[in-house]
Structure formats: C-alpha cells, structure tokens
Design a protein that fits this description.
Number of domains of chain B: 1
Order of helices and strands of chain A: HHHHHHHHHHHHH
Keywords (chain A): Cell membrane, Membrane, Phosphate transport, Transmembrane, Transmembrane helix, Transport
Number of strands of chain A: 0
Radius of gyration of chain A: 25 Å
GO biological process, one term (chain A): phosphate ion transmembrane transport
Shape of chain B: globular
CATH class of the largest domain in chain A: Mainly Alpha
Number of strands of chain B: 10
Strand order of the largest sheet of chain B: 6-7-8-3-9-10
Oligomer: heterodimer
Strand content of chain B: 15-25%
GO molecular function, one term (chain A): phosphate transmembrane transporter activity
Order of helices and strands of chain B: EEEHEEHEHHHHHEHEHEEHH
CATH superfamily of chain B: P-loop containing nucleotide triphosphate hydrolases
Number of domains of chain A: 2
CATH topology of chain B: Rossmann fold
Number of helices of chain B: 11
Transmembrane segments (chain A): 21-42, 89-112, 124-146, 152-171, 199-220, 267-285
Main location (chain A): membrane
Bound molecules: adenosine-5'-triphosphate, magnesium ion
Structural class of chain A: mainly alpha
Chain lengths: 294, 260
Amino acid sequence: MSSSANLMVDNLGRRTLKDKFYKVLVVVLSIVTISPIVLIIYELIVKGYRQISFDFILKTPPDTFEAMTALSSGELIPGGIANGLTGTLLMVVLASVIAIPVGVITGIYLYENPGKFLANLTRNVSDVLQGVPSIVLGLIAYMWIVKPITNGFSALAGSVSLSIMMLPMIVRSTEETLKMIPQTIKEAALALGVPYYKVILRVLIPTSFSGLLTGILLGISRVLGETAPLMLTALGSTMINLDITKPTSAVPLLIWEFYNDPNMVDLIWSSSLLLMAMVLALNLISKRIAARTK
Amino acid sequence: MNDNSVTIKDPVLSIRNLCVSYDKGKYAVDNVSADIKRNAVTAIMGPSGCGKSTMLRAINRMHELYENIETKGNLILNGKDITDMPTIQLRRKVGMVFQRPNPFPTMSIYDNVIAGYKLNGIRLKKSERDDIVERSLSDVTLWEEVKDTLHKKGSFLSGGQQQRLCIARALAFDPEVILLDEPTSALDPVATSKIEDLLVKLKENYSILMVTHNMSQAARISDYSMFMYLGELVEYGKTKDMFTRPKDRRTEEYLTGKFG
Ligand SMILES: Nc1ncnc2c1ncn2[C@@H]1O[C@H](COP(=O)(O)OP(=O)(O)OP(=O)(O)O)[C@@H](O)[C@H]1O
Ligand SMILES: [Mg+2]
C-alpha cells in the first residue's frame, strides 16, 4: 500500500519536473524565434533612422559624386528613393491586377471541383510553382516579355514575374477560405432560387472577403522585397518611371545598387527600414483582418 | 405495401413514386407517394438515416445541384409538375428552413429578410422592401425584438432569433409551402416553443412540411404525420390517429421508443 503511494508521489514529482522543463524549453524557443526579427528591426532603426525624412521619400538618389561630397564633409547623403518607391508601387499594383483575378478564379474553380483531375493537377502545379526559385521566374519573364514584347527591360516584365510568385498564394488562400464557409450558407442561397454563379459572386465571395484579402495582402508583402526576378526584368532606373514598357527601379533593386557603391552604402539601412516597415504593416493589417473575422 | 390510405382533397403537393438515390441502385427514398394537405402542418418522422431530409430536399429540387444524385418520380405542386417550373419560381413557392440557423453572415437583419429578392436581382421600391421586412419579421414574432437594430448583422442574434430570421427570409417570398428540416433541434426549449407556436399560427396562410425527431413536438403541432423507415413511407395519416392507433408494427415500435 505505502509503496504504491510512494510511487505516486514519485511520479508526481517527476511530472512537475517534466512540466517545468517543458515550460522553460517553450520560453527559450520562443525567444530564439522572436529575437532575429527584434534584432533586425533594432539594427535597421539604429543605422537607418537618420536618413529618413520627407526628402528620402520624395527625391531620387544622388549620383555617386554628390554622395561622396556629402560623405567627406560629414553630412547626410542627400536625395531619396522616390524612384524605387514609385517603381515598387507600380509593379506591385500591376502584378496584383494580373494575379488577383486569375488566382481568385482558379481558387474558386478548385473549391467547386475538388476531386476533378484538372483541379488536382492545377492544385499540384500551383504548389510546385510556390517552390520555384524567384530568379527562375525572372528568367521566364525575361523570355516571355523582355525579349519579345517590350524589347528591353520593363516594369511589365517585372510585374509578370512578381504576379507568378503571388499566384499560388492567392489560389491556395482562396480555396482554403471558401472551404471554411459552411455548406449551409451556400444552400440557404440556393434554396432561395439564386442561380449558382450569383451564389458565388454575391454570397461566397463577400462571406470570405476578409480571408481573400488576407491572402492577397500576404502575397503582396511576399513579393514586395523580391530582388532577384527584378534584376532580370525591370533592371532599375535612376529616375521615376511610370511607363510600364520602360526599365523601372524598385526599393530592393536600389538597396542592391547602394550596396555596390561605397559612397552610397549608407543608404541601404534607411531603404531597408522603409521596405521592412511596408512589409510589416501589410502583415499586421492582414493579421488584423483575419482576426476580426474569427 | 405502404399503408397510405388517407385521402386528401385538393392537396397542395402530391408526391408520386418518389425515389432518390445517392449511390446507384441504393434508394435513400424508396417509392414514396403521398398527398400533402393545404394549410396544415405535416410532420415527417423516422429514425436517423431513413431519408427524411432527402425527401424534403427533393421537393425544392436541391438534389439537382449534385451530379451523383438521381431522382425519379413526380412532385406536383398545385397541379403542376415541379420539374416544369424554373427553379427560381419553384423555390419562391417552396421555401426552405434548415436544421442549423444559417443567416447570411455578411448581411444585416434587414437584408437577410429580403435576401431572396436582393440576390436574385428582383428590384423593389424602398416602401415595398420596408413592408416585406416588417410583415415577415412580424409573422415570425421577431419584429418587436429587432426593429431598432435592423441594420445590425443577422449573425449577432441568438440561435432562436436567427432561426426565426431564417423563417422570415423564407416567408418574405410569400411561398405556398414551407419545408423545415428539424428547425428546432439546435435550439433551447424556450426558443423551440416559440417556433412551435409560430408554425401553428403560420399554417393559416402556408402549408408546412416539417421533419422532426421529436415525437412530442409532432404530436403537439402537426395535423398529419408520416413515418418513414429505411427510405419507405411506412405510415401516413392524421397525427391523432397515428399516435393513438398506429397501423404498422414498426410505427408503433418507433412511437413507443423501441428504436430510433
Ligand atoms: N450527400 C449524401 N451522399 C451519400 N449518401 C447520403 C447523403 N446524404 C444522405 N445520404 C444517405 O441517405 C440516407 C438518408 O439520409 P437522410 O439525410 O435523408 O436521413 P434523415 O432521415 O434526414 O436522417 P437524420 O434524422 O439523421 O437527419 C442515409 O442512409 C444517408 O447515409
Ligand atoms: Mg436529416
């Protein structure tokens, strides 16, 4: 009797020890997970905040001599990354215009025909696409757009490569959010005699709207910082360019250019800070939207 | 053979040799024939899986949406075969209320009531809309409770209120028949008794066909009852007769709680 009671106490003791161990482990692992992002943001703010100003958003970068002069007299580098910001905006908007309709319609198709051969094929291909290295997508856009269509590097080519990157994310999030809508909501509409396509357009899409938006925003934030495919497609530009058939700059391209110019290298921190802020903002917004609908 | 000896004059709906199968050769509803009385509550009872929902859904042609489901037989609504009607016309005449309250989550209470018009693109004047909303919500005794919050989302209501909203949504189309599939099984006793009272009141203007698992509910509010078993209509008659003198042994066993 007493020995079995002892055993229980022993077990209990070991269990609380185990519990403690796991608790500590979880806390340590959480810190390991969180610390990189905290350190990155800290680093960017410390090294980049001095450059951030209205000029930084509204002006184009200085040439390397101006930067050198400023550096040698101990001043801040003049100018900003307006060409990169406008280029990024232009290409991301264009990429969204291409990827959102295609992605949403494909996602609806997958949702409607879950078991069909073509749907399974599409779903698998889309998953594979998600894993294709972005530089390869840049090459593809180079072959499809730069050479035959715009006869040179262009924002359009950049947008196409970004849109291919966004596509799988939008397809998947559309399918998944639609799947979460209870079948009964759909049947309620059908039982009112509403034709099928109207049920999709006017009931399913509005009901899953925030889910769709979350997927789209995450897709955008994913491509916002892409550099590799843009090097082969949009190339870059020292001026603000809004012509989609012409070479165009983007914030990540500028960061790469600054990095390669010893006189401008100080600008990488402020540019990265701005880019990081945009990505974080998009992430937070999409999280908020997702949370509100739960 | 089925014992469906009731004769019903001028039925609102005639079910003739209805068969529905999900898998080829296996009938979830097996050769059911019955006439449904106008302005009355008809209850459909039977153990789980006997085909009650399947039969109900055949009446507004819900099964057409799924390729693998096969429906045979005839359903005649006011002398007209329902397969000859456009679905929108049929579903305006035959409203449906589901087991779980399912208001459209993105729509306000107001829009939920007139959802049938809105989603079908039927244009109404503002005054007509207001009238329909007030009349339908009053019919389900929800008007007083929600008249000041009509523009709030329907999903904020309690379960019982949501179910009454769903009934109002069906009533807004001014149907002739209302199909209800266990409309109170997700509700508490108070909400349930409100819906029961409502159905008794509604039968003055509508014909009601209701699936229920709850025998005392069927006894309380229905005029006619069907008992189904394994897809067949075993017994059909006046509720009073069926509960006091069931003709079929299986009905008797079900009603006395021997199975189900
Ligand atoms: N979508 C479906 N696909 C295949 N078989 C189905 C489907 N829906 C129902 N069935 C089958 O058809 C039969 C009748 O089902 P039904 O839902 O009509 O029963 P029910 O009487 O409404 O039962 P319950 O009281 O549990 O709601 C059951 O054997 C069921 O397994
Ligand atoms: Mg059922």
